[in-house]
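Action item from last week, closing it out:
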Amino acid sequence: MYEMFIPEIVSFIKSVDEELAAKVRSCFVKFYMSYHTVDKYNRPLHYLVLEDFTCREGNFNFRDAPELVAERLGVIHGSFLAWQRSKHPGLTPAEMLEKYPFLTECYTAETGDLNEGFFIWQTLAVDKIIRVDEEFAAAPDKLAVLEKLGRLVKLCPHLARLRHETQKPRQQFFCPTLADVHGGNIAMSESEKDILFFDFDIIRISSPLIDFHHFTAGSLRCSPHDKPAIVNNLLMIYIDSFLSTCHALNCDVKKSELLDEYKLTHNWYTITSYFVPLLTLEIQGVSNEDEEKFFKEIINLDVDTESDKIREIVANIGNPVKVYKENVLKFLRSVEPEQLDKLEKQVIELKLNVSA
């Protein structure tokens, strides 16, 4: 992606503002030394060697300056949007995809089906794991959590499609985006004054706010109570950076447009906040095949008559499932009923659209 795309945008910015062009260029890994090996499942691994930079392994604490990520995302997106509107005014998303075939949409029919299955069997399994958990049985918020989980079970067959609908580029507001913005794909200098973005395998065109939601949903390590205020602060930093960048490049964008985009794409935040805990086992080193076998075995058991068997299966996997359960419970306790209302409303609208 880098060779095919970033130089063209940087060249455009340089014709207007050389200092801004250097800032945008400095956000991306142009080249790096890479060592290749394989993990225990014989999957290839690539190690980046970045002098004076450190990856944050997926999460940003307060000391890791997530504000800098929000500010640089604003610079990148503002630059990308200004380039698109200046060099390709009036182009539709389909025409952009035709002109730049390496751009993509996040979910094709094939990946949509895969993700739909992932959401369904993971959610059905976690429902049973939580219901037989003896510690959770005594939790004071048990009924509230189970109520939200029950709604999620009904929603899970639609979550992949909702993500797809949310990230679809709309003619009114779209530009190239980085697609997979999380702490594992961001390196920060030891001085915490510079960052680098990398991993552009699935760069796409969509609303730029998708990148912002992706980062804040999956890469902020903070309590559910504190998170709304933290995200709102990051949003203001992002918007200010976006608008000042667009202004420098003679691109007219209003704050109200970005706030509208934030609301229109908020489903991405909700679904990704749930999606991230589901990846716990993979992060803990359980292979995809073992994970699917493990969950489907649980799905086939009855909570009322085979609860001991479910507990035995969970115990055999050990700590990864403990972390998995805790992460999902954290999501269920943090998600607001209004967010589920919004997802349910969109499912109804999608069904009406299909029948029409």
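Closing note: Strands lie at 33-38, 44-49, 53-55, 175-177, 186-189, 195-197, 204-206.
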